[in-house]
Amino acid sequence: MLPFDTIEEAATFLGRNLTVAETLWFNYSAKKSDYFLFCHNILFLFLIFTLVPLPLVFVEMMRSLGFEKYKIQPKVSLSLSEMFKCYKDVMRMFILVVGPLQLVSYPSVKMIGVRTGLPLPSVWEILAQLAVYFLIEDYTNYWIHRFLHGKWGYEKIHKVHHEYAAPIGFAAPYAHWAEVLILGIPSFLGPAIVPGHMITFWLWIALRQIEAIETHSGYDFPWTPTKYIPFYGGADYHDYHHYVGEQSQSNFASVFTYCDYIYGTDKGYRYHKKVLRNLREKSRTDGAQNGGSYYVPTQDLKSE
């Protein structure tokens, strides 16, 4: 809750007029408690888990419109009822674990210094903090993910997430309840080390989940804006990890690829892509010689 009754008082405190964004923030948040503002995360997560994967459902149902060529594992197709079942399982986890966790974690967010007051952070400050959050989350998530692919971690916890060997958008948060709790730690570390404004915190939670859904989409669209982000993994990169499954020792990174490259856990994936390129070149040559077309589906090769 802001310690001002009027915009004039806020302007006097800042020593300047409020920006348009600050005026909007004042009008919305002035009489709301910090706890209430923090709990917006529950609504954001519900909307993201529900709405963001819906275009992918449409794409999956309408492959005949030309989306087939972008499917990473084109031989795998899920029905609408199967995708809805995944959504129901995710919502059950949301109601029983994610939502309550958000409700009780406010004291820790308050303790690390996430603020709700004025002034608002600049766009550059928000972008810089988000970049730090993604890097910290990616690095810590990498090691936790590697641990979960050990015999005990996989059998007891992580195999639930790998039930979808060809991932779909709704399956991004589909996991064992313990994994949901454990992977909440990397998401919290960035804001704990570099605390910012509540708006930045909202954006971080939302963008991280949207990124996870995109990574689990099962489609490698050429127009995806994330392809222009350096070292970004993306759907094709993470899809290989799901395809190999239980024995996978490749592509542990959640967002970027640098950890896998540094620690040598992308060798299986790079070998896989190299062999696929050779097969495609051979098919292209054979097709040209025979006057025909060529196609080599990516899931026809599994290599570790």
TrEMBL record:
Positions of region (Disordered): 282-304
GO BP of this protein: lipid biosynthetic process
InterPro entries, per the entry: Fatty_acid_hydroxylase, Sterol_Desaturase_Related
Transmembrane segments: 35-59
Annotated Fatty acid hydroxylase domain residues: 131-265
Localization terms from the record: Membrane
Coiled-coil residue spans: none
GO molecular-function terms, A-Z: iron ion binding; oxidoreductase activity
Keyword annotations: Membrane, Transmembrane, Transmembrane helix
Pfam families linked to this entry: FA_hydroxylase
An example Gene Ontology CC term for this record: membrane
Domain of life: Eukaryota
PANTHER family, per the entry: STEROL DESATURASE
Family stated for the protein in its record: Belongs to the sterol desaturase family.
Official protein name in the record: Fatty acid hydroxylase
Species this protein is from: Corchorus olitorius
